[in-house]
Amino acid sequence: MTKSDLTRRSLLKTGMVAGAGLALPTIFTSRASAFTNNPTGKTVTFGFTVPQTGPYADEGNDELKAFKLAVKHLNGEGDGGLLQTFSSKALNGTGVMGKKVQFVTGDTQTKTDAARAAAKSMIEKDGAVMISGGSSSGVAVAVQALCQDAGVIYMCGLTHSNDTTGKDKKRNGFRYFFNAYMSAAALAPVLKQMYGGERKFYMLTADYTWGWTQAASMKQFMEGEGWSMVTDVRTPLASTDFSSYLAPVLSSGADVLILNHYGGNMVNSLTQAVQFGMRDKMVNGKQFEIVVPLISELMAKGAGKNIAGIPGSSNWNWKLPDAGTKAFVQSYGKEYGVPPSQAAQTCYVQTILYADAVTRAKSFNPCAVVEALEGFKFDGMGVGPTVYRKDDHQAFKDVLVVQGNEKPDNEYDLLNVKQITPVEKVMYEPESEFFKGGNLGQCNPGA
Amino acid sequence: MDAILLQTLNGLDKGSAYALIALGLTLIFGTLGVVNFAHGAVFMIGAFCAVSMNRLLHLSYMTVDPTKKDFLGNPMKIQTPYIEAWFGHDTGAALLNWSVPLALLLALPVMIVVGVVMERGLIKHFYKRPHADQILVTFGLAIVLQEIVKQIFGANPIPTPAPHALAGALDLGAMIGLKAGAVVYPTWRMIYFLFSLIVIGGVFSFLQFTTFGMVVRAGMADRETVGLLGINIDKRFSIMFGLAAAVAGLAGVMYTPINAPNYHMGMDFLVLSFVVVVVGGMGSLPGAVAAGFLLGILESYGSMNAVKSLLPGIDQIIIYVIAIVVLLTRPRGLMGRKGVMED
Q1: Which domains does chain A have, with CATH numbers?
Q2: What is the pLDDT of residues A7-21, one digit of tens each?
Q3: For residue A420, what are the β-bridge partners?
Q4: A-chain residues within 8 Å CB-CB of B256?
Q5: Domain B2-53+106-329 coded CATH 1.10.3470
Q6: Rounded to two decimals, what is the model's pTM?
Q7: Backbone angles phi, psi at A91, to 5 degrees
Q8: With an 8 Å Cβ cutoff, is A267 touching chain B?
Q9: Is the ipTM of this complex over 0.95?
Q10: Which residues of A touch B6 (CB under 8 A)?
Q11: How far is A333 from chain B (nearest CA, A)?
């Protein structure tokens, strides 16, 4: 028979001590990691996913340069850029919440799977607390959903599909860039004024979420102005030769070609349309015209002389006269020797807006950041007063209607701002036709 | 009718590029028995010869114009090409304008050297290895070449326009008695088609009507017997590799005004060109050319709105559908010979 020292009292004591011992670190851990990738050291990591290859590589490279500049300014290096003109004065050039900002980058290749893999690695391996980038709405929608599930903030870069803040909107995602609906709403009255009220248009549309919503928006607004659509032809995003799609345009009876293409796609399709002689033709007794609803400076540069006179819309332009634009152009121009594109301005602003929201919220917790950004009104970033609407996380501000410069003064003087459409003209209800069906859901802090 | 004519022209134009690349692939396969997956990269290097020529001609010196301001408000820096300073503004501007045709002069020797170096330096070591090894090594070489070009020229497409005089469109409808404006087609694309016919004709004539070509054809038919006759067939086959590279390179130069060249363009064409070679029949030069034009035309027809409304997405897969049909009905391709790639 063996004698045991175990008594009821000692068992209870041991159990309580062991229980407390096991529970204590869990309590600390759960507090310390109340959200994904809580930065505990002297640095905080941002993740920037941009296309460095593929049809949007031009935009991606410019985005990356802007991200680097924003980080520099947040850490107190350089001339401070837009921190000087931003209406919120929470940031002071000492990093974010006293932590120096560092960043990791990844190539999205303009493919959703590559973009998700890059963002996932940044979150899981590099400890990124915020992801930004894009240059394709397909990529932005996919990465935004990933960030929602992972519990980090996604500050959308260049994404113009209605769906990003429509049916695919997420509580952890915010978009500063304008969208396809706003482009069409701003552009339609100007096009009617330029080319008359009875036109027949033929559309070539990039076959993914951005192209679909851009085409649908243009169709609705142009038909509202009295124009009629001949057809809308979908083209694969990977296309480089659009000749098969362009060949039937002139014999279709259309007198306007609308190119719902962006980046390298648009450079190729516009160049090839001009090669087909479309800008010299008279159809239905009218001059044949080409319209590109979304134009960037980089696309204008790629298209060269072919862009002259082509109307479109932009989120921002480096020639705007406001103080914010001037400060950013100076800062970016001194750093890189060229004026910034709208892609660069968007990504720079998004990085600053995130850092500002963290500082105002006094926390990196995504839910605190969401709260700080929802309904946030700000100014001094270019294009006037802006508000991040709480209902869909879309930024609302004025929209630019631009036109390819016929007589550029220098190699960067490619687009003229033809009209600034006030934000009231491009507003819509969150549940209106092109945006319904989505649900922001709850903020996800992860961990 | 007009739409069919337009898409036929378009198909001939697309087919020109397919045929030229497939012709080079077949030349290499027919002579050396190598399946060269780096051939698309050679096409891409040719295109970048045009970019290089354009940049060479645009080498400039800088002056400062204090009367004008740049975007930062500093005095404007004006770039003047040396060529305009040396030959005068008009002649210099004309040379700049014709940089793509001028690039042919640069590309011809460069591409022959690239081809011969590629063959002597790497590919000859794989002649007696299985086709799978050849495919792996040439595919690896293609990736290396495109990454080198990416490092030097960047990832973005570089617009390289045609001369102004050839940049517009031709009203072919009016020329052949149809309604004016019914069939309008870009001038440069017509030139590209004619160029491809000249190159293809030149290669066939070279093989058919020269002693060198006769020896090469004999070597393709029976390499061992030609070697026993005391002829160094290896040397001739190396030159043929250089010739194939030159064909692809020149095709690349002339293609640049159609599509701005980028480092990845070779891969885009490579897969289609291999399908062309297989459909035409491995080792058959006429087969490669015929299949190139045939698939180009069918691809264009597949892009017609009327066809796409009946068969949505057909434009994306038509080439592969045709390839499956041809291989099921004629396993050696349209003009394939018995015994090629058959154990």
Answers
A1: 43-178+318-397 (3.40.50.2300), 181-314 (3.40.50.2300)
A2: 555 545 555 555 554
A3: A400
A4: none
A5: yes
A6: 0.84
A7: -85, 140
A8: yes
A9: no
A10: 247-248, 251
A11: 7
